[in-house]
Amino acid sequence: MRPEQHKQCDLARSAKPLKVGFVLARSFTLSAFALFVDTLRLASDQKDRSGRVLADWQVLGSTRHLVTSSCGVQVAPTTDFIDPARFDYIVVVGGLLSVSQPVDNETISYLRQAAAKRVPLIGVCTGSFILAEAGLMINHESCVSWLHHQDFRERFPDLRVRSDRLFHLDGQRGSCAGGSSSADLANVLVRRHIGRDAARNALEVLQIDQARSATHSQARRPIVIDAKDPRIASVLITMEQNLEGDISLEGLARSVGLSRRQLERLFEEQTGLSPGAAYRRIRLERAKELLQNTNRAVVDIAFDVGYSSASHFTKAFRLAFGNTPLSVRSSQPELH
User: Fold this and answer.
1) Which of 180, 177, 169, 29 is nearest to 94 (CA)?
2) Which residue has the higher pLDDT, 123 or 330?
């Protein structure tokens, strides 16, 4: 080993490591946990000698009982609920929403204690649901998978949520959609606390081509409109998740760092539509889907997609598709 390499290793060993505590929910998502941990581990990688050099982590638990992931693999907590102030971050890894009590009351109390000590809390996968249930996402915006967006809105109607991006850091809180985005979020923490070289090295060993930022959109296309620009894709997903039509063009533009005029111009270039026309098309396509696949009343579907009256909805629907909602409904086989 060359002298400069020895010096780099000595500096790494003397630096204070990034410390992360993990709380695993019952039926947690193994991939989200593993990718987060391995990004931390590989930040110290030197020719396959990675370890707890530049980052350290513990799996916290109210008991030492094994925690079973959604795929059946079990993980053992490595420590009890020690002082949360010993960690730079505490990461809650969620999983299946069907689990009625993903963490016990002692865990909830510990997370509240960590928040009181101003330890940043991060919800991974459905971990943001656990933080929200504990009252720890008030005045913070959560990022969840598009699969869970509606579930979050129904459970926590007073909280802000988005599913147009991979992850979100908001003051003392963070959240991400899970899956591979766990590595992206962990990589941001590595870059922030350890350095760019360590962050780049971790991703290279994980065979991830490049780091994705918080503004990258989730891997899901909107219903009917495609766009290559990630900002437009993000806005289209936000439209799709807010079919009531109650979001403003200014708000959409701000969400992706653009002015209203810039958003309008970019929309025309990318989709050939104005933002308003694109929003209307997405809402009407959803209405058509509901007419074809449910027995819900036409007036209820109209309200769901942001129309205040059935007549207004019928007029817009006919203009878009050339026939009325009732004719679309009558052409479908009867649902039971």
Assistant:
1) 29
2) 123
Q: Which run of H or of E encompasses 253?
A: helix 249-255
pLDDT single digits (tens) 155-197: 999 999 988 888 999 989 999 999 889 999 999 999 999 999 8
| Cβ-Cβ contacts under 8 Å for 291 (sequence gap 6 or more) | 298, 301, 325, 328, 329, 332
C-alpha span between 176 and 165 (Å, rounded): 8
Q: What is the pTM of this model?
A: 0.70
What backbone phi and psi angles, to 5 degrees, belong to 173? -130, 155
- Which alpha helices (H) appear in 15-157, and where do they start and end? 30-42, 105-116, 127-133, 149-155
The sign one gets for the Cα dihedral 217, 223, 227, 232 is negative
Residues 36-94 have pLDDT tens digits of: 999 999 988 666 667 788 899 999 999 999 999 999 999 999 999 999 999 999 999 99
User: Scanning the structure block, which residue is given the tokens 């290559």?
Assistant: 228
List the structure tokens of 93.
């890894």
Distance of CA 325 to CAs 20, 41, 194, Å? Answer: 54, 56, 58
Phi, psi of 176 (to 5 degrees): -150, 160
268, containing H or E segment: helix 260-271
Residue from 131, 141, 146 nearest 179 by CA? 146
User: Is residue 139 helix, strand or coil?
Assistant: coil
